[in-house]
Write a structure and sequence with these properties.
about 280 residues, ten-stranded mixed beta sheet, 6 helices, disordered C terminus
């Protein structure tokens, strides 16, 4: 198994909470890549207490569940493509996927990640310099992601986290979404007709915190994947931010990203005490 070989290179860094960078090829029979390394880290440190860094740089076509169950400190970069269930159940760490340098296609037109990415994720970050398939971030609870396009049913049953989509999206977006935020690039004004409005609301990105969150996520996306379109957005951010629509459920209505009038529980308690 590929990860057995990579563990030999990573073991010292895991034991000492040090840092190591590993380069390798991957093929589509390498399924659930990252779960084994993540398990070795989690067994000793839990999901978020590993203070080192295991950085794995891969080239090729990854099998199903690429980056599944990874934890904080495990950072996986793939030049190539990945199958369904990228980041399934991930609790921390990061995954980045980008096409090979010199690829002739537009990242926003080509799928390089499969269906059901981030299923049940509870943390971590995913960056895809290309499109992903259907049910992107389904049941995601805390992971953050930037992707350049998605299929149908994105953000389905999402309960937390944040997703930025820099390209077009399919139908039935945000069905059953009860937590978290979604930022969708909507220059052609087609998004509203594709959103399931049973729970979520739509608005422009107009708050200071909302703009800062969007910008920081796109910045990291560019840093990790080399996204050309992401860089264009950053170069013209004051104009391009007007082309984004934010989706939010009622549970996020009082957050700084959604409203400039957000009041935290701590502030409310302080006002109550002073009033007494």
């Amino acid at each position: 198994m590929l990860e057995d070989e990579l563990l030999k290179q990573a073991q010292s860094a895991i034991d000492s909470q040090g840092e190591v960078t590993i380069d390798s090829d991957i093929i589509n029979t390498d399924r659930s890549f990252g779960a084994f390394l993540g398990g070795k880290i989690a067994k000793r440190y839990g999901d978020r207490d590993f203070k080192g860094a295991v950085n794995v740089n891969l080239t090729g076509s990854a099998g199903q569940a690429f980056g599944a169950m990874i934890v904080e400190g495990l950072n996986i970069s793939l030049v190539g493509e990945a199958n369904d269930y990228v980041g399934k159940g991930m609790g921390g760490g990061s995954i980045s996927i980008a096409p090979p340098p010199g690829s002739p296609f537009d990242a926003g037109e080509q799928s390089i990640a499969g269906n059901t990415c981030l299923y049940g994720a509870t943390g971590g970050k995913l960056f895809v310099n290309g499109r992903a398939g259907e049910r992107f971030a389904v049941r995601n609870s805390l992971a953050e992601a930037v992707v350049e396009g998605v299929g149908d049913h994105a953000l389905e049953y999402m309960t937390g986290g944040c997703v930025v989509c820099l390209g077009s999206a399919g139908r039935n977006i945000a069905a059953g979404m009860t937590g978290g935020l979604g930022y969708f690039y909507d220059k052609d004004n087609k998004l509203a007709a594709r959103v399931n409005g049973e729970i979520v609301k739509l608005q422009t990105v107009h708050t200071k915190a909302g703009k800062a969150k969007l910008r920081s996520m796109v910045e990291e996306h560019v840093q990790r994947t080399g996204s050309a379109f992401g860089q264009t957005i950053l170069d013209n951010f004051d104009t391009e931010v007007e082309n984004f629509i934010m989706l939010y459920p009622p549970s996020e209505a009082n957050t700084p990203e959604v409203t400039d009038d957000a009041v935290t529980e701590e502030v409310e308690e302080s006002v109550t005490v002073q009033a007494k």
